[in-house]
């Protein structure tokens, strides 16, 4: 008999790519060098592209298997939601390049730290996902991702307000309003993936 695909391990692997992207973003913003940004973008795209290939491989196996541990639609949805996280993170770096950002604001680094923490919690939740009926930890991991997203919402509100109160430069305001929006979307994407996990759990109890 052909060995069945371990979709739960596949989810973890995809989330690890998201974490790697978040770590690269966080490291880049903390030690920002506009001259090496193109090189960093290439590294980020390699992470995103490899994650895409992994997602396609899982999908290909899904098409061949008759019995799956959870519904096919849920497997596909979770693959897409985790992929969205990596895409959103790459978008932040692309923005920094396109808008020729030269100096990183401290508030952006606060945001990248939240994204990194959220990806870490998501991996923790996915490691518990396979045995969710017995897990004592998965619920707290999902709640942690939700709390980080809420923290991201609050941070977004305050730093956009601060930007508009303190900066008199229209280009600076536009550049960083969009940047903060893209950073906030990364936290949203993590929460959406966590919510899908929770939804799948409720359907399969």
Model description:
With 205 residues, this protein is an all-alpha fold. It is 81% helix and 0% strand. The radius of gyration is 18 Å and the shape is globular. The mean pLDDT is 95.
> Whole-number average pLDDT?
95
Order of helices and strands: HHHHHH
CATH topology: Methane Monooxygenase Hydroxylase, Chain G, domain 1
Strand portion? under 5%
Overall tally of domains: 1
Main pleated sheet: none
**What CATH architecture would you give?**
Up-down Bundle
Structural class by sheet pairing and helices = mainly alpha
Beginning-to-end CA distance, first to last residue: 29 Å
Which term fits the overall shape? Answer: globular
Number of helices: 6
What is the class in the CATH system?
Answer: Mainly Alpha
Low-confidence segments: none
What's the count of strands? 0
What's the CATH H-level superfamily name? Phosphate transport system protein phou homolog 2, domain 2
Radius of gyration: 18 Å
DSSP helix fraction? over 70%
Give a brief description.
With 205 residues, this protein is an all-alpha fold. The protein has six helices and no strands. Helix 1 runs antiparallel to helix 2 and helix 4 (106-129) runs antiparallel to helix 5.
């Amino acid at each position: 008999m052909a060995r069945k695909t371990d979709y739960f391990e596949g989810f973890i692997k995809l989330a690890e790519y998201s974490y790697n992207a978040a770590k690269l973003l966080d490291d880049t913003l903390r030690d920002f060098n506009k001259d090496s940004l193109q090189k960093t973008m290439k590294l980020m795209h390699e992470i995103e592209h490899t994650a895409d290939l992994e997602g396609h491989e899982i999908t290909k196996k899904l098409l061949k298997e008759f019995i799956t541990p959870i519904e096919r639609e849920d497997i596909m949805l979770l693959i897409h939601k985790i992929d969205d996280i990596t895409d959103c993170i790459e978008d932040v770096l692309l923005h920094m390049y396109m808008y020729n950002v030269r100096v990183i604001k401290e508030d952006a680094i606060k945001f990248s730290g939240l994204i990194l923490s959220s990806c870490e919690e998501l991996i923790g939740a996915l490691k518990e996902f396979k045995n969710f009926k017995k897990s004592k930890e998965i619920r707290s991991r999902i709640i942690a991702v939700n709390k980080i997203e809420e923290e991201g919402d609050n941070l977004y509100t305050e730093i956009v307000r601060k930007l508009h109160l303190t900066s008199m430069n229209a280009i600076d305001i536009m550049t960083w309003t969009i940047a903060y929006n893209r950073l906030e979307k990364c936290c949203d994407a993590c929460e959406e993936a966590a919510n899908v996990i929770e939804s799948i759990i409720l359907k399969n109890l």
